[in-house]
Target: Myo-inositol 2-dehydrogenase
Amino acid sequence: MKELNVAVVGAGIYGINHVNAYTWNPNTNLVAVCDLNKEITDKIAQEYNVKTYNDVNEMLDQEEIDAVSIATPDAFHMEPALAAIRHGKPILVEKPLATSSEDAKKIIDEAEKYKVRVAVDYHKRWDPAAINVRNELQNPETGAPIRGYMSMDDIIDVPAKWFNWADKSSPVHFLGTHCYDQIRWYMGCEVEEVYAVGTKKVLKSRGVDTYDSIQAILKMENGCYWTVENSWILPEGFAKNNDGRTQILCEDAMFRIDSQNRGVEMFNTQKQRTPNSYFILNNCGRPSGFGIEPINDFVYCLQNDIPFIADGNDGLQAELIAEAVHQSLEENKAVKIKRD
Ligand SMILES: NC(=O)c1ccc[n+]([C@@H]2O[C@H](COP(=O)([O-])OP(=O)(O)OC[C@H]3O[C@@H](n4cnc5c(N)ncnc54)[C@H](O)[C@@H]3O)[C@@H](O)[C@H]2O)c1
Model:
């Protein structure tokens, strides 16, 4: 099978996982990496012996590229996405597809026009625990789902120290869209209406104008109600960078997932850690885990011309929910999801 020539745009904290995945994937040839930050591209050029660029159009004009990964900050996916699409390249966009449904639709419409495909990296769809529960939900003996709960939180360092763009995103865009996507995928239907409450206090006092925490109730087409909680202010001392739980009550079954303590505990003189041994691992230099799988799967789907596990429409649907949650927070009332 022909190797795919791939490129990565945005090589920060998460984009480097795309660079590592493509470096190791036997079916890809990483031809170029683009980042606005020259310090980053200089380091990557040296460490990975790959061509680097600081302008996405220049890279797309000069290199023979078959597919592009986009891992720029949440609110800045559209520009490189449209550039790649207009050069006829299929794209894998980090979640969320965009931070407005308008931008998400623009990406999808442009991709249709240029006849290229869009995948979105909702990596929770590759989490073995989630796959297991989703399969069980499809077992007729489980009965209909009645109520669901999902939480996903980050330690405060994520918005306050890791990024300088947290005020242009929110726990809803950054974390909530993961939950909304996963809930749609579990339920096999869409969200009809949302109601949300939230607090802006701690991050605002640190100069980051976004929500600390948001709780949203989602009414699903199948009659199931979900509560989704997302926060960006877990204390720095927490045993992991993030926390997460799921509980689903069905007519004849109940499921629980603890995404925080997955069975490995590490202790040193300062703190206890509970790393996620399934997410992204370095196995003698080789990247593996369910954080890497969607990147390899993008390549597999392109090479075999099969549908993506999470595509542009999934990205749009998660964003429509995120937008409605923000609207509900601002207007203090239930908001119906608007689909044209
Ligand atoms: N950090 C995480 O844990 C995590 C996990 C999963 C997904 N993601 C997603 O990955 C994306 C990137 O997040 P991150 O944590 O790597 O952020 P980051 O700030 O560490 O990296 C973003 C990089 O994109 C570069 N960039 C910005 N605009 C660009 C442009 N137009 N062209 C080229 N480069 C550009 C920046 O210079 C920066 O190096 C986000 O959408 C995020 O939600 C992050």
In short: Residues 9-15, 34-37, 40, 56, 71-74, 76, 79-80, 94-95, 163, 174 surround nicotinamide-adenine-dinucleotide (CB under 6 Å). The chain has a mean pLDDT of 97.
